[in-house]
Design brief:
The complex is a heterodimer of chains A (111) and B (118). Chain A has 111 residues and is mainly beta. Chain A has strands at residues 4-6, 11-14, 19-25, 32-38, 45-50, 54-58, 61-66, 71-76, 85-92, 99-101, 105-110. In chain A, the strands form 2 sheets. In chain A, strands 2, 4, 5, 9, 10 and 11 form a 6-stranded mixed sheet that branches. Classes of the chains: A mainly beta (111), B mainly beta (118).
């Protein structure tokens, strides 16, 4: 079983729609969760981090965390073609300080 | 804020030569920096964790004598790929974690260095 698992996609949504990206993790004691965006040929860019159960909103992005279900998601409202990228979920497990990444979900927003 | 730079952004070298990549945190101090490698269409693979003033911790399978890491100051870490071979061609990315009070586990990534070994 992978430690951090994401829908591999690709995920395709029309412009203006809500894109929903999901991530599950294996370490129940994890406390820190991150979403990064990576454009093709570029390095990851931090979008959001979340530590507490519930929702955290930042502009068009909402991160949702459910520690009981070991599930974290990212919603992108009013998706734009510029949102087309690979989205990486990352978790810091209780055993250390390193980020453990999922394989990423490739998102395409169609004009 | 939280800007990380890397130099060079790309490099082409001959097989057998060594290449040094610099990673700098421009507007914050970083006690810990991380080095990743990413092959096409794959996720990031952590190579090593570097703490200022101490030896780097390498991930399993990463040769510490081949990938030399130095973290001499709170704003600079270097990765030297020694005796590079074509299979070392990859996208090398560093990240830095700010040294400040409170939650300090967020990592900010540099723009990456694309290495091609001929």
């Amino acid at each position: 079983q992978k430690e951090v698992e994401q829908n591999s996609g690709p995920l395709s949504v029309p412009e203006g729609a809500i894109a929903s990206l999901n991530c599950t993790y294996s370490d129940r004691g994890s406390q820190s969760f991150f979403w990064y965006r990576q454009y093709s040929g570029k390095s990851p860019e931090l979008i959001m981090f979340i530590y507490s159960n519930g929702d955290k909103e930042d502009g068009r992005f909402t991160a949702q965390l459910n520690k009981a279900s070991q599930y974290v998601s990212l919603l992108i409202r009013d998706s734009q073609p510029s949102d087309s990228a690979t989205y990486l979920c990352a978790v810091i497990f209780t055993s250390g300080s390193r980020l453990t990444f999922g394989e990423g979900t490739q998102l395409t927003v169609n004009p | 804020g939280a800007v990380v730079s890397q130099h060079p952004s790309w490099v082409i070298c001959k097989s057998g030569t060594s290449v040094k990549i610099e990673c700098r945190s421009l507007d914050f101090q970083a006690t810990t920096m991380f080095w990743y490698r990413q092959f096409p269409k794959q996720s990031l693979m952590l190579m090593a964790t570097s703490n200022e003033g101490s030896k780097a911790t390498y991930e399993q399978g990463v040769e510490k004598d081949k990938f030399l890491i130095n973290h001499a100051s709170l704003t600079l870490s270097t990765l030297t790929v020694t005796s590079a071979h074509p299979e070392d061609s990859s996208f090398y990315i560093c990240s830095a974690r700010p040294a400040k009070a409170g939650r300090t586990d967020t990592q900010y990534f540099g723009p990456g260095t694309r290495l091609t070994v001929l």
